[in-house]
UniProtKB/TrEMBL annotation:
It comes from Levilactobacillus angrenensis. Residues 118-220 form the P-type ATPase A domain. Coiled coil: none annotated. It catalyses: Cd(2+)(in) + ATP + H2O = Cd(2+)(out) + ADP + phosphate + H(+). The lineage of its organism: Bacteria, Bacillati, Bacillota, Bacilli, Lactobacillales. It is a multi-pass membrane protein. This is Cd(2+)-exporting ATPase. Belongs to the cation transport ATPase (P-type) (TC 3.A.3) family. Type IB subfamily.
Amino acid sequence: MKFQRFIYSHTNPITFWSAGLIILGFLNTWFTKVPYVTDTAWIIASVIAAAPIVLRAISALKAKVFSIELLVGIAVIGAFAIGEFEESAIVTFLFLFGSYLEQKTLAKTRGAIQSLTEMAPTTAQLVNDDGTTEEVDVDDLEEGNVVLVKAGGQVPVDGKIVDGSGYVNEASITGESRPINKQNGDGVYSGAMVESGTLTIEATQVGDETTFSKIIELVEEAQDTKSPAENFIDKFAQYYTPAVLVIAILVYVFSQDLRLAITVLVLGCPGALVIGAPVSNVAGIGNGAKNGILIKGGDVVESLAKVDTIVFDKTGTLTTGKMTVADMKQYTDDQSLLAGVAQVEKTSDHPLAQAIVAHLDAHLKDNASAMETETIKGRGMVGHWNDNDLYVGNAALLKDHDITLTDDQLADLHSMQDEGQSTVLVGYQGQLAFILGVADTVRPEVPAALAALKRQGIKHLVMLTGDNQATAQAVAESLGIDEVHADLLPADKVTFVKKFQDMGRNVAFVGDGINDSPSLATASVGIAMGGGTDVAIETADVVLMQSSFTALNHAVGLAKKTSANTKQNITIAILTVAFLLIGLVYGYIYMASGMFVHEASILVVIFNAMRLIGYKPRGAKQAKPATQQLATN
């Protein structure tokens, strides 16, 4: 056991010692020609390089697995038997050197995980009851603790700001490079960097329960989750390796050419085939993690690449989820009346009233004094402005008080309602003064993003919403949505998702990760634009930490590229085997040259997969990698 551990821990030095001995043998052959030196150098090189290969083959056999190392080990023994010490030395060196390069390049494909784990906070400034602070290990923090984070520091917990304000860079969580202004009462994530200001934060999640820790865990698990292509290749390799052994034996039996049989063993190593799919999977998922996109495994990548129908929730997904004043029609010259409207609406907690107050406060220079109001159920509110009643509500409220709309005013009202706006009418001194249209506004990036999804091969875009049909239809038409269904409960949305699946479509559902959890779980791929909520992380197959359509386009494009890259690697591996067999038949390929081509093919598929690390959608502005952002802070 000690010998085995020693060999494994010194595999890389052994690789380079073997290279030195091979070079020594060639130098002696070409120049000094000292007797026995060449063969001795090559024998020693073969023995030391074969040690880790044979030990791995034995370990695999104990587990009843026929590994690539078994093929190489038998080939080396056969080369010794026929006195081909040069071949055995070169074959073992190339195999170890190929493994060394694989380790280095695969480590780079897992760079997203490494950069995330290196960025995890390790200490925190704990605020004691007497107001003093002390540095503690993050593992010692508990929920409810209060921590202090100054400019340049790292947030050690998920929590809520209880004092202070500043700009926070959440790139390690969301992939978004733009710092966000955080105020008292705002939430913050562990791992975020405070670029300016000082924040006092009350912990709501600590340790392994923080969003940052869950992201690291999810990405690690995802990179180890195999795609259907990988599972197929694993099963294929279980039968392929012993088949190569049988073929080599048959070649020797019929040809009596031991060298040819050994060469068949070398050429039969399925290295590129075995590694081609997982390295693409690791690189693709790593790219997603770097850009704030959590993809839960290679099987999800494969499923997302096949999606042809995307179903969207409306509120909070296609729209911002925040009601704002989208339009205002004015039928009076008395602009000061709007100050009265603001005061009336301030006495209500209705979402429409809050949207109007926010809009008017942002546009009015002077605020009127507070007023008493009367709420009329199902109609609206009545206030008192400059010795006259001020009516703020629906058309029925105005009609009740003998305020009649003209034909032009009715046309304006119906036009705004047809556009999906909820309307609030203002009546004063027997006339209609204003119509305010309030709507949940569409995210500004959505139209271009949906067009990009179409270009990426998504054939059908569907919107399912609990909102009314008129509003839903107006939003759908403005965005080019193919199909819309409104007035739905969460269970109704699940029914539609199943209906599309029964029609043979590959369905992805995009929602906020909270109300739409059943649909996220039912769809072929559930995509949560939930900003890292616990429900989103647990339920969805893909979590878009930025909660943006730019990230959605990136995720779909990345899945398709990763799936295509996997197929490219499998093709490269198969063509390599075909090339080697043809070369062997025609006498152009021998043991050492075959092993060289074999190892080169492994590196080709790795380097091909590494192209995914830098993938970004066409025309997209890629967020600066989190590690670079930390370096510039």
